[in-house]
Amino acid sequence: MTDEIPQILQRMMTEAAPIGQASISPANEAEYRLQWRALLLGERTPHSLALAGGYLASQLPWVFMAGYQAAIRWVFPDVKVDGWLAFAASEDRSSDAPLAGVSISETGELNGFKTWVAGVNSIDGLLILVKGNDAGPTRVFELHSSVPGLTLHGPEGVPGKEKFLAAMSQGKVELAGVPVSQLDEPSVQRLRWFRYAEAISVYTALGAFLLRASQLLESEQLRDAALGALRHTEPAFAAEDEQALAAAAGRIAEDTIACAHRYEAIVGDDAPGNWAVDRRLIEMYAPRN
Fold first, then answer.
1. Sign of the CA dihedral running 57, 59, 61, 67
2. CATH superfamily of 85-182
3. Which of 22, 139, 195, 209 has its CB surrounded by the most CB atoms within 10 Å?
4. Pairing state between β 170-179 and 139-144
């Protein structure tokens, strides 16, 4: 069944065989980022990013990050920053005095806050969404994390184990007087695809994680289920319209969720990381009837 294994995973399972060993599984975000960069820095193919990043992951937060990085490059293929990116779209809705959202001033500068930045302690750059209004259309700007006027705020204190994906740093970004004339502006042509692209990419990463788990557990049944979950992923990344993406996302979700449940039945309470909380990721993108 070797022919069924995507080429990039075959390479990782042979040339990069030590990556498949549990003894060097990345224990935290910094270690995962280091291994991701060593293997994937400069890789631009979203499907390969999701597969390889998921195979490298040792727990669900890194599965999410693998898929997230792939989805960003799928929806915004002209981004220039290498390394980890965050797509900063969320704004504060949590209090009676929310932080100001990001807007463009009359002098052409970005100001305001975005409130959910994944991997905030480790990202190399951001894509900032500025929502359209009467003053202009929706736009996205690409910023390196070190650009003057940009401040990243990491999590406050140590996240409790009840927090979803707590091992992945989560924070906010503050922008103050960042001139848009100095920023790259990726096309927003595929922006509406993001929810499907993220779902397909995360499930692809999860399928690769489960394939690696089948090796560590020496389970042929889990291996076959993981390959089954991955079989529709490559064509999905070639889809060109929302209807095709939605159909692909539903099919891949069904297969991958079933495989993940098989894995859980095998490992029980020995699942890695904060699985009891983070397992919400498994069904987070499942189609809603």
1. positive
2. Butyryl-CoA Dehydrogenase, subunit A, domain 2 (2.40.110.10)
3. 209
4. unpaired
Q: Are 140 and 186 in contact (CB under 8 A)?
A: yes
Listed residue (26, 97, 87) closest to 60, CA to CA: 26
pLDDT of residue 84: 97
Closest-CA residue to 178 (of 149, 212, 204): 149
Amino acid at site 274: N
Kindly tell me if the per-residue pLDDT of 69 is higher than 60.
yes
Q: Where are the domains of the chain?
A: 8-77+191-284, 85-182
Phi-psi region of 21 (alpha: psi -120 to 50; beta: other; left: phi over 0): beta
Burial class of residue 95, CB neighbours in 10 A (0-12, 13-18, 19+) = exposed
Q: What is the pLDDT of residues 130-165, one digit of tens each?
A: 988 766 799 999 999 999 999 999 987 667 778 999
Q: Is the pLDDT of residue 112 over 50?
A: yes
How far is 129 from 90, CA to CA, in rounded Å?
Answer: 9
- Owner of token pair 């065989």: 17
Q: What is the pLDDT of residues 232-270, one digit of tens each?
A: 999 999 998 999 999 999 999 999 999 999 999 999 999
